[in-house]
From TrEMBL:
It comes from Brassica napus. Coiled coil: none annotated. This is FAD-binding PCMH-type domain-containing protein. It comes from the Eukaryota. SUPFAM superfamilies: FAD-binding/transporter-associated domain-like (SSF56176). Signal peptide: none annotated. Pfam families: FAD_binding_4 (PF01565).
Length: 426
């Protein structure tokens, strides 16, 4: 059940982009293009699709069209007026609509993109990078989730978010979890096509490692499950990136056991408090080697003003167990951090999801907030990249990195350790 991937100790500034697109050329006008597409859809599906709820065009209602276009866009740099906009947006309400969309796009020669609605930082699911008209197939109405505790599995449609998935699991059980992403605004469809790592990956691997089945529409509009697509294609879609093999409609994911009590903590150190990078250097040496129940990342942010600007390094941890056992692990493997009992907060799994997502612990909102799919980044203009390292960065390299980091007005860097199950899967 392994996924082909790099096996570094640490991932630096990691993210997953969600997208799917076919590159064909459209040659008709906007109105006739839409009319031809709608007529073709009617010919290839028996399931009705109310136009006012499924089709959005700048001609019919410009403000609503822009609202729908922006609804799941993370990076505002791809929503500027100069960026190409789709001829129309279609939101399928049934799986057969997606099949028909593929058939009709090929028949009419339409360039189209498909988005599941998550962290597409590069705008590949809703912006065309070639000069030709295009449309968007938006899967946000396909978000059904069926949790089967007896089978230890869940079927989740591509338009659902990770937050919705976690919440629906927690409704059924307090001792079952899913090893997918950390942020609730991730769209599950494209998330898993990129592998999908999260806070349980050192214990249970990637979400892609825990996929049991999938439904996908291929380039001919055929609906395939694991048996029909074959094991080679099933292997490829779990980490081979979106836009390569077809449109994911739903995933069947294995549920994993989580304890009733988890422990979380955040310990922040400034540059002055980590003189000589002793703590950060030790983290690089041990983070991927500590017990697989512990997931310990480092967030780098800029703190202070221009006169006393510095870098804050927040060590954010999640441990599958109580704080007593956590303290034993940290005192033995990473005493340099200085973790204390008062830093540790015990909670259940769904509460730990909210903690990792950045929600307040002093006045925590109800778990239903996970259904809102709000991005932790917010509506900003940004550029994100990721890289990997198999060896610790030496002190000289850390100094250069921090110097460059301080040149930015606003920046975020995240270091994520692998190890555990991530080293065991081929």
């Amino acid at each position: 059940m392994g996924v082909s991937k790099l096996s570094p100790a640490i991932s630096y500034i990691s993210f997953i982009a969600l997208y799917f697109s076919f590159y064909t050329v459209a040659s008709t006008s906007s109105n006739s293009l839409q009319d031809d597409f709608i007529n073709c859809l009617h010919q290839n599906t028996n399931v009705d699709f109310p136009l006012e709820k499924t089709f959005f065009t700048p001609q019919s209602n410009a403000s609503l069209f822009i609202e729908v276009l922006k609804s799941t866009a993370q990076n505002q740099r791809y929503l500027t007026k100069s960026m190409p906009k789709p001829e129309f947006i279609f939101k399928p309400v049934h799986e057969s609509h997606v099949q028909a969309s593929i058939i009709c796009s090929k028949k009419l020669g339409i360039h189209h993109h498909v988005r599941s609605g998550g962290h597409d930082y590069e705008g590949l699911s809703y912006v065309s990078h070639i000069e030709t008209p295009f449309i968007i197939i938006d899967l946000s109405k396909l978000r059904q989730i069926n949790v089967d505790i007896e089978d230890n599995s869940v079927w989740v449609q591509a338009g659902a978010t990770v937050g919705e998935l976690y919440y629906r699991i927690s409704e059924k059980s307090k001792i079952h979890g899913c090893p997918a992403g950390i942020y609730p605004s991730l769209g599950i469809g494209g998330h898993i096509t990129g592998g999908a790592y999260g806070s349980l990956m050192r214990k249970y691997g990637l979400a892609a490692d825990n996929v049991l089945d999938a439904k996908i529409v291929d380039a001919n509009g055929k609906l395939l499950d694991r048996t029909a697509m074959g094991e080679d294609m099933f292997w490829a879609i779990r980490g081979g990136a979106g836009g390569s093999f077809g449109i994911i409609l739903s995933w069947k994911i294995n549920l994993v056991p989580v304890p009733q009590t988890l422990t979380v903590f955040t310990v922040t150190k400034t540059l002055d408090q980590d003189a000589g990078f002793k703590i950060l250097s030790k983290w690089q040496q041990v983070a991927d080697k500590l017990v697989e129940e512990l997931f310990l990342r480092v967030f780098f942010t800029i703190a202070g003003n221009n006169e006393n600007k510095t870098v804050a390094m927040s060590y954010i941890g999640q441990f599958l167990g109580d704080k007593g056992n956590l303290m034993e692990v940290m005192n033995k493997g990473f005493p340099e951090l200085g973790l204390s009992m008062k830093d540790c907060i015990e909670m259940n799994w769904i509460e730990s999801i909210m903690y990792s997502s950045g929600f307040s612990t002093t006045t925590p909102p109800p778990p239903e907030v996970l259904l809102q799919a709000k991005s932790p980044i917010g509506e900003v203009y940004f550029k994100a990249k990721s890289d990997f390292a198999k060896e610790p960065i030496p002190i000289l390299g850390l100094k250069g990195m921090i110097k460059k980091f301080l040149e930015e007005n606003a920046a975020l860097m995240i270091w994520t350790p692998y190890g555990g199950m991530m080293d065991k899967n081929p």
